[in-house]
């Protein structure tokens, strides 16, 4: 259970801002609509991640936010897995048209990505897509019980 005593509250240092992957993930505070750092928010999900915290404090309105993980199976099968496969397929196809990222496969009579092409597929297509699916996470506000 989430208690004020048990798990720590995550806070950004003054001046620290969410970076590019958080912008792709697009997780926002339900109270003030400020962009939240996805790495910190993922630590609040009881079904995901490690080094868990009870909540992440919104830097602008000081609400304590967390992912409750509700609807995760629906999200995984209807959004996560299809988008993952689609992005991997599009990335693998795209690198076969860029010189230096593919080689000709004699037996198949076509091109396929080489190792660099695989890295481009993962970092430019798959990872941004996986972060994008965080937009569908359910964000809740934790009651503070009188202490900060
Ligand atoms: Zn806020």
Write up this protein:
The protein has helices at residues 20-25, 38-42, 72-95, 115-132; strands at residues 9-10, 55-57, 64-67, 102-105, 110-113, 139-142. It is built from 4 helices and 6 strands. It has a 4-stranded mixed sheet. A two-stranded antiparallel sheet has the order 4-5. The chain is of the alpha+beta class. Helix 3 packs antiparallel against helix 4. A hairpin with a 4-residue loop joins strand 4 and strand 5. The mean pLDDT is 89. It folds into 2 domains: 9-68 and 138-142, no CATH class; 72-131, no CATH class. It is 36% helix and 14% strand. Bound molecules: zinc ion. Zinc ion is lined by residues 29, 31-32, 34, 58, 60-61, 63.
Which SSEs are present, and which pair or pack?
Elements: E1 9-10, H1 20-25, H2 38-42, E2 55-57, E3 64-67, H3 72-95, E4 102-105, E5 110-113, H4 115-132, E6 139-142
Parallel strand pairs: 1-2
Antiparallel strand pairs: 2-3, 3-6, 4-5
Helix pairs in contact: 3-4
Task: Pick out its properties.
148 residues; alpha+beta; 2 domains; four-stranded mixed β-sheet; two-stranded antiparallel ribbon; 36% helix; elongated; binds zinc ion
Strand order, main sheet: write it out. Answer: 1-2-3-6
In total, how many beta strands? Answer: 6
Structural class: alpha+beta
Distinct ligands: zinc ion
What portion of residues belong to β-strands?
A: 5-15%
Which radius of gyration do the C-alpha atoms yield?
A: 19 Å
- Average pLDDT, rounded to a whole number, is 89
Assembly status: single chain
Task: Describe the structure in brief.
The chain contains four helices and six strands; from the N terminus they run βααββαββαβ. It has helices spanning 20-25, 38-42, 72-95, 115-132, and strands at 9-10, 55-57, 64-67, 102-105, 110-113, 139-142. The strands form two sheets. A four-stranded mixed beta sheet has the order 1-2-3-6. Strands 4-5 form a two-stranded antiparallel ribbon.
